[in-house]
Each structure stands twice: as structure tokens, then as C-alpha cells.
Specification:
Number of domains: 1
Radius of gyration: 16 Å
Strand content: under 5%
Number of strands: 0
Largest sheet: none
Distance between the termini: 41 Å
Structural class: mainly alpha
Helix content: over 70%
């Protein structure tokens, strides 16, 4: 169930952003990356682990920096950041012992990240005029 909901929300958030016009500003997707990365910090607080919180904050800082650089330079870096966060979700449990992370969260977040990254990549390709059809 976490896989399906992750994909659905990973598409619903950016589609909603496009429909209401949030994504007209290039900061929209960068904020999505920052918020997504910060959930692990929240889980560390909920789990009551200072050690986990410090580790989670260090990881979040890396995604915040990538988000800021992507905002300033190229939104493709935000696509990379979302995919990288999906990879982080896969290896998270082996890197950081965080008692507050729900068992289902890493797979939910992985699917959200990948879906949101795919949507943003598709939008960037649309904006650049790249055709999805093979050339003849």
C-alpha cells in the first residue's frame, strides 16, 4: 500500500502545483525536496533520539544545499536531488538508526521521490522542447 500511495502523492503534489500555478515559480520543486528531506528530522524528534536527529540533520543539510544550488543554477539538480533522496530512503536504515521512522516510510518516500522526480523531469523536457517521440 505504501508504494501505491507514495506514487499517487508523488504525482498529485506536483500536478496540484501546476494546476494552481505554484510551479510557475522555480522554487516550488526545490521546496518539495527540502520538505521531503526534513521528514526524517521530524521522525528523529518523535523517536526522542538526539543522535538520530544530528545524523538526520546532516543528511537533510546535503539535500537543502542541493536544492538551493538547483534553484540558482539548474532545476535538473533538483531532479537529481529527488532521485538521490529516493536512494537515501533505500539505504537509510543501514546508515542511521532512527527509532521514530515508521516501518513503511522509506518505501513510501522512495516512491514519492521517484514519482516527483519523474514528473519534474517530464516538465523540464517539455519546457526545453524535447519530443518524447522517436525521430525517424
Amino acid at each position: 500500500m505504501e508504494y501505491v500511495v507514495g506514487v499517487l502523492l508523488g504525482l498529485a503534489v506536483p500536478i496540484f502545483g501546476r494546476v494552481v500555478g505554484f510551479d510557475r515559480d522555480r522554487s516550488f520543486y526545490t521546496v518539495v525536496l527540502v520538505v521531503t528531506a526534513s521528514y526524517y528530522d521530524l521522525f528523529a524528534v518523535l523517536g526522542g533520539s538526539t543522535r538520530a536527529l544530528l545524523s538526520e540533520m546532516a543528511a537533510t543539510a546535503a539535500f537543502v544545499v542541493l536544492s538551493a544550488v538547483g534553484f540558482r543554477r539548474n532545476l535538473w539538480l533538483v531532479v537529481v536531488g529527488l532521485v538521490a533522496h529516493g536512494v537515501f530512503d533505500i539505504v537509510h536504515g543501514g546508515l542511521i538508526e532512527d527509532p521514530g521512522v515508521p516501518r513503511w516510510w522509506p518505501m513510501f518516500c522512495l516512491m514519492f521521490d521517484v514519482a516527483a522526480a519523474a514528473y519534474l523531469a517530464w516538465r523540464l523536457l517539455q519546457r526545453s522542447g524535447v519530443k518524447a517521440e522517436p525521430s525517424r
